[in-house]
Specification:
By secondary structure, the chain is an all-alpha fold. 78% of the residues lie in helices and 0% in strands. Helix 3 runs antiparallel to helix 6, helix 9 (144-156) runs antiparallel to helix 10 (163-186) and helix 10 (163-186) packs antiparallel against helix 13. The protein starts with a helix and ends with a helix.
Amino acid sequence: MSATIKLIYHTAKVRLGFLIMACALTGVAVIPDHSLGAWQILALGVAVLVASSAAGAFNQFYERDLDVHMKRTRSRPFVTGRFQADRIWLGGIVLSLLLALAAAAVATNWLATFFVFMGAFTYGVVYTVWLKRRTWLNIVIGGLAGSFAVLAGSAAAGATFSPVAFIIAGVLFLWTPPHFWSLAFACKEDYRRAGVPMLPVIVDDKAATLTILAHTVALVMLSIAPLWYGMSWIYAFGAIVGGAYFLFACARLYIAPGITNAWHAFAASIVQLGLLLVAAMLDGLLVG
């Protein structure tokens, strides 16, 4: 039983779901004087986590024919047969998403629920089904999934397009490509064998790493902008320290392209976003 639960955890990409949940909670935290109760915030967070996990499970369900060609993914349950890719699994994924949307609707409002849906739809359908096998822009457009989570939080708090929330949503949009392209650079041969046109597969190393660095410069510059809208030194610390670390890792990857430096850039992207989100939430709780 515990082994099955562990497989479900990894199949649904629950760790990624917690990150997306943090994006939604950040969208709430940066809105001052909102009237949401603790149960509403908790319900929204769980709804985003479940919706993201449903999209992650569908991603593995749908991509099992690609995953078999990649060392990193060939042991996934839908590839090995531990989980049968049948209507029962597909129905469970859809039901999970519907329950998440219902919880968001009851706890918050229709607009927040719409953004929760759009986040899952963007990752599960737009990225996974429509774009991943067709264009290197797959993850650029797919980056909207995290942005929708931030907007779900701000919409739930009654300020959908607050400048700070909108800027952080933009940071998420710019963050996703260098995050995934760093991973794709490290696993380039996997993606080449699977026929997935990730940027590092279709251009040379210098062009790929320069694009990663350019995206990182843009997102770090944008992440500083909330300081002009009242965010305090707490947010500034997280944004600047995390941003500097991510920039350093991407610059090193550009100067010396290689698998090790690509993994370092990938790890740095997670550190950068984690510091940014935690600092934004603390700023909202302690200062806002």
